[in-house]
Specification:
about 1200 residues, two-stranded antiparallel ribbon, about 65% helix, flat, mainly alpha
Length: about 1200
């Protein structure tokens, strides 16, 4: 047993794999022991005594085997972790492997080890009941209960009829003891019946008779467990007289016939079958959240092939309607029953076919599901959400069934607004999981509901309009949802449908038309509100498609992603315009809603011709031509979809700009004939560049603030960014200037007046009359506002007993004087009136300011697009100062503008990897100087960081074109300001970034850095300068050997500056530099020495530059200073510098002697190095002090 005892511990593990592995090892070991065991003849009557006589296991089994059987049976009552599961599995496997035990022995052992006593606690009693249940299940599943063999060397049968009856009776009794054990006990009985019917034991018929007698004669009450066993027995014993056995509870011997479904529903609902009045309240302590195992049997039986379920079996839709929908989901059903219903629906969903699936979305189920989904505080909200999750998972595995599910969710029993009612995205998620065919089927389904099918009945216009509005929204949602797999065919069909019903009226159907919307005439016709909704959704769809990228295959078979186009490379907007053009040429089937005059028709025709010509522009202008084409097409489409009569000036401006930017290359073309957009545009065309005209229209799109306009504007500008000029940038930056909303409105009015004055005399007269009417209307509006204010004041006075003066009686003698309280009350009333009036005016100003902020935000998008698409443009420098002004000059109500501008400067400018190939040197120098000037007065650290990133970009750009003088001058002034002015807003990081990233230019500031150390306003600023020098010295290897002479000339100055500063700190009575600060200076000196050594400087140069004697004197001064003498690390650092110079000198003098040269300079250097080696402290202390100085 020493080899099997450790395995019992793992049987209780919480890990299923660990339990299974332990079971396998235990059973294998016991099989091995049993194979080697030889039973003795007198084993049963030996001196071992009582235990052998009790169960007789030791007679034919090895000691390990009998011990393991007893321990496994006793372990079934253990409450520790997963002991019961592990021991039951091991016992089942062991009993199936050995043939030296009888069923009587094991049953007796199980019954004996699971006896309950009156002194047991409730938990101990439950453990015993479970031990008995698991013990019987192990006997049944191991096959021991139906093993008709004899024991080795004996004629005794392993199992018998009495064993079966005993096990059956004990399981029935166990189910009667506790209601919560009934289902499990009868499930074990079901296992026994299945094993019995599948076995060939000689007592099979007697066992079946006994089973039927107990089930139908002794147990009259019907339970879900009895239905489950009846289903099993009916399948295996069809020749039985089931009419007699099932009556009088059931009318038909076929249990699942339609007539019996009502009775089955009451039984499964656990209601009283015999009573007419049924109670849906679950029995106390009897309800369990898990559904009964009989439901799996019923679903498998009803959804099996017809040959297996029988000819009289009720159809599954009838079963689900009667037993589930009208029972568990009835109006009077309890939440517990509905919880069961949700689980049964989840079980049925993956089992049903596509034809039967609509039948499980029944009326009561859908009502309960939507009701509990709609609010999170509903009792079954989590259960309803779980149903949603199961449906979504099911559709992902079966995309073809997504369309069927959507039909049910939005159909008769559901709601068209299912997602809105339930506050979920169930329909949307199903759509994203569907394939292209499923989406097309859904679109066809939606379009079929356009017409009212109730022929002969009065048309409910409101219901029809509501349904059509929902369909329009659904079609638009399909296009706008980026997760739904797109196909050019169904996307184009939706766009065509929206265009047809938004811009035309279908008068006659055309069966052969490629446009599906023409294949039927809507009855009744669309209302004006629906047509407007179609136009709005058309533009919103195009807005999303314009921002969506599509993989397009080029002629060379390469795949590129292009935005705003279909898979053939054509703009979606252009595709819609082509549809509109076809419809305009088909007056037989459609009628145009808005009639146009000849001028507008000519203008639109001209725009189409120009857009077609722009498609053929070759070469480097192709991208800009595509941008102009998109702008022209989008403007033309917006012209079609405008609610009111669209202003032709915008379209004329686009035509003018595109015509002049891409002129027709013919011999007869002349410059004076470039602009043919009308006399009104001649003056503007002479002022603005063609690209400026186009960009001005783009800005006009942004002012309208619709998603369509914004998407088109951003995409057009992205394509035109390569043609942007300096005047274009100025035009964009003008929009970011801070202006008062009232002033902006005044300017717009002036522009409108100027435009009116530019017309002919008749137009002027008409417009002047209109202006007069407008002024009259404004005056009337003001008078109305004043009258309203007057009424409020009079009401306030009347409340306090004061009548307003009417002019008819002003006799002072009739006035009644008011006391102080009345006057105060009137003051409060009047103050409230005037306060409300002020709030109204303030609200208007706030709205105007908010709209201006949003507009500037959209303009910033253009600048970001430009910097992203043209990172090497020379115009980038031109953008920096205006963006900085926007950051600094915006108020708290425009913080989002400042944040966005900051992000643009830091990401697109500060982190730019590409630099302009050529810049305006004077402009760049001026920008750099201005940035430094603002940095010295930066209001915050964030602004200073942004300015630092911008200065670095401009400095890199100037250095790239070989203009370093402005950079040195700007940083020199900032350095002086930082060091000498205490109120300077600069910090070390601002200068340190320049030193580290622009080493070649920063090297020119080396002398300035040393000079300002003596002018520092305090010790901290002085140390910061030396920190900059430290960074510069650290980057000196980047300069190469070309600057070696300059380095040798700079290092003596550095040595002198360092020694002077440290000596001054020793001489001053007050603490100027701390020990930590002086230590950093020594680190700088040591870094410079090491750098000089790496440059292969001669020993004489090292000695001359660093003068070890001066450092020796400084060490002596530090040791004598009362304030610094306690810091031994300073003296150690000083001596480390001396030693570094000395070692370098020594190694330098050894090199010539190896080559045979014995000149006097080498000898002198060698002698000086030898003298210096005697100066420091004992050498044993040197390494420790030096190491301590470095770590501290």
């Amino acid at each position: 047993m020493s080899t099997t005892l450790p395995l019992f511990w793992d049987l209780s593990s919480a890990s299923a794999n660990t339990r299974i592995d332990a079971s396998v090892k235990l059973v294998s070991s016991l099989e091995h022991f049993q194979s080697q065991f030889v039973p003795k003849k007198n084993m049963g009557r030996g001196e071992d005594g009582a235990e052998q006589k009790g169960d007789g296991l030791d007679a034919l089994n090895a000691q390990d085997v009998s011990y393991s059987i007893r321990r496994l049976v006793r372990g079934l009552a253990s409450p520790r972790e997963s002991s019961r599961l592990g021991f039951a599995v091991a016992l089942t496997e062991l009993l199936s492997k050995i043939d030296t035990v009888t069923c009587s022995q094991i049953l007796a052992l199980v019954l004996d080890s699971s006896k309950t006593e009156g002194t047991m606690t409730g938990q101990e009693e439950r453990d015993m009941y479970f031990a008995r249940l698991f013990g019987f299940i192990s006997v049944i599943q191991s096959g021991l209960l139906f093993r008709e063999t004899t024991l080795p060397s004996s004629s005794s049968l392993v199992s018998s009829l009495d064993n079966y009856k005993e096990a059956f009776a004990e399981l029935v009794a166990l189910g009667e003891k506790k209601s919560w054990l009934r289902e499990s006990a009868w499930w074990a009985i079901g296992l026994a019946i299945e094993a019995l019917l599948a076995s060939d034991v000689s007592w099979k018929d007697d066992a079946v008779e006994s089973t039927v007698s107990v089930l139908f004669a002794e147990k009259k009450a019907w339970t879900p467990e009895k239905i489950a066993l009846t289903l099993k027995l009916q399948t295996q014993l069809p020749s039985r007289d089931w009419q007699k056995l099932l009556s009088p509870t059931f009318k038909s011997p076929e249990l699942l016939i339609t007539g019996n479904l009502g009775t089955i529903a009451r039984i499964l609902r656990e209601s009283n079958v015999d009573d007419d009045e049924e109670s849906d309240v679950p029995k106390s302590g009897a309800w369990k959240p898990q559904v009964h195992f009989v439901w799996d049997m019923l679903l498998d039986r009803l959804l099996s092939p017809p040959a297996q379920k029988g000819s009289n079996t009720a159809p599954f839709p009838d079963f689900f309607r009667i037993v589930v929908d009208e029972s568990l989901f009835s109006n009077t059903s309890s939440p517990e029953r509905k919880y069961w219903g949700f689980q049964i629906f989840t079980k049925a969903l993956p089992r049903v076919s596509a034809d039967d699936m609509p039948m499980i979305f029944t009326k009561n189920f859908m009502r309960s599901w939507i009701n509990h989904l709609s609010k999170s505080d509903r009792y079954l909200h989590k259960a309803a959400r779980q149903v949603v999750s199961d449906i979504q998972s099911y559709v992902k595995e079966n995309p073809a069934l997504g369309f069927t599910l959507i039909l049910q969710l939005t159909g008769v029993n559901g709601s068209r607004q299912f997602d809105k009612l339930t506050r979920t995205k169930t329909v949307e998620s199903i759509l994203t999981s569907m394939d292209k065919d499923g989406v097309q089927n859904y679109i066809d389904y939606l379009l079929k509901q356009i017409n009212d099918d109730q022929t002969g009945e009065p048309v409910d216009a409101q219901a029809v309009n509501s349904r059509r509005a929902w369909i329009i929204d659904q079609l638009a949602a399909l296009v706008r949802n980026g997760a739904i797999p797109k196909s050019d065919d169904w996307v184009q069909s939706i766009l065509d449908w929206l265009a047809v019903h938004g811009l035309f009226a279908v008068t006659k159907k055309s069966e052969k038309s490629p446009i599906s919307a023409l294949r039927s005439v809507p009855a009744p016709q669309f209302s004006d509100e629906l047509r407007k909704l179609c136009r709005d959704r058309l533009l919103s769809c195009l807005a999303d498609l314009t921002g969506h990228t599509t993989a397009v295959e080029k002629e060379d078979k390469t795949i590129v992603k292009i935005p705003a186009v279909a898979s053939d490379g054509r703009f979606w907007v252009d595709r819609v315009l082509s549809t509109i053009e076809k419809l305009e040429k088909d007056p037989k089937h459609v009628a145009v809603l808005a009639e146009l005059d000849e001028e507008d028709q000519a203008l639109r025709s001209k725009a189409r011709q120009l857009a077609a010509r722009l498609k053929t522009v070759p070469g480097p202008q192709r991208e800009a031509a595509r941008g102009a084409e998109l702008l022209l097409s989008a403007t033309l489409l917006h012209h079609y979809c405008a609610d009111e009569e669209a202003d032709a000036e915008t379209l004329e401006s686009c035509i003018d700009g595109a015509t002049r930017m891409f002129p027709v290359e013919t011999k007869k073309s002349k410059k004076p004939r470039k602009s043919t957009g009308g006399d009104a545009g001649d003056s503007a065309a002479d002022v603005l560049e063609p690209v400026d005209v186009l960009v001005d229209n783009v800005i006009g799109f942004l002012e309208q603030a619709t998603a369509y306009m914004r998407a088109v504007a951003n995409q057009v500008f992205s394509l035109l960014s390569g043609s942007v000029q300096e005047s274009t940038i100025s035009l964009i930056l003008t929009q970011l200037e801070r202006r008062d909303p009232a002033e902006l409105m005044a300017v717009e009015d002036e522009e409108m007046e100027d435009d009116e004055d530019s017309g002919d005399e008749e137009a002027e007269e008409d417009e002047s009359s209109e202006e007069a009417e407008d002024e009259d209307e404004d005056e009337d509006a003001d008078e109305e506002e004043d009258l309203e204010l007057r009424k409020k004041i009079e009401e306030a006075l009347r409340i306090n007993g004061v009548e307003a003066a009417t002019g008819e009686s002003d006799d002072e003698s009739e006035e009644e004087l008011m006391d102080d309280d009345q006057m105060l009350a009137i003051d409060e009333q009047l103050a409230a009136v005037f306060r409300a009036r002020a709030t109204e005016k303030k609200g208007k100003d706030v709205d105007a300011q908010r709209e201006a902020t949003h507009f500037k935000n959209r303009v910033l998008d253009l600048l970001e697009i430009f910097l992203k698409k043209q990172p090497s443009s020379h115009l980038t420098v031109r953008l920096i100062i205006p963006l900085v002004d926007l950051i600094v000059g915006t108020g708290p109500d425009e913080k989002q503008l400042a944040d966005k501008a900051t992000g643009i400067l830091r990401s697109r400018v500060g982190k730019a990897k590409e630099l302009p190939s050529s810049v305006d040197k004077d402009e760049a120098a001026e920008v750099l100087q201005e940035l430094h000037s603002r940095a010295r007065k930066a209001p915050s650290a964030d602004v200073l960081a942004t300015l630092s990133a911008c200065t670095m970009y401009v400095a890199r750009a100037l250095h790239h074109v070989g203009e370093d003088a402005p950079i040195v001058r700007a940083y020199q002034e900032s350095l002086v300001d930082f060091v000498t002015r205490k109120a300077s807003r600069l910090n070390t990081q601002f200068l340190q970034d320049f030193v580290r990233r622009q080493v070649a230019v920063a090297w020119a500031l080396r002398d300035d850095l040393l000079d300002v150390t003596s002018k520092a306003v305090n010790a901290y600023r002085q140390c910061q300068v030396f920190l900059l020098i430290h960074a510069l010295v650290k980057e000196l290897p980047q300069l190469g050997d070309e600057s070696k002479a300059d380095v040798l000339a700079f290092l003596p100055k550095l040595r002198t500056a360092l020694i002077d500063v440290i000596s001054q700190a020793c001489d001053e009575s007050e603490a100027s530099l701390t020990a930590a600060q002086i230590k950093e200076l020594f680190k700088l000196a040591l870094l410079a020495v090491r750098h000089m050594r790496r440059t292969n400087a001669s020993a004489e140069e090292l000695l001359v530059v660093w003068d070890p004697q001066s450092w020796n004197d400084l060490s002596t001064k530090l040791a004598a200073n009362p304030r610094l003498m306690s810091s031994t690390a300073l003296q150690t650092s000083c001596k480390e510098i001396i030693r570094a110079v000395g070692e370098s000198a020594k190694s330098g003098s050894d090199r010539p002697t190896k080559k045979g040269r014995t000149d006097s300079s080498a000898t002198a250097s060698k002698r000086k190095a030898a003298e210096l080696e005697d100066a420091p402290a004992p050498q044993k202390a040197k390494p420790k002090k030096a190491k301590k100085a470095k770590t501290s």
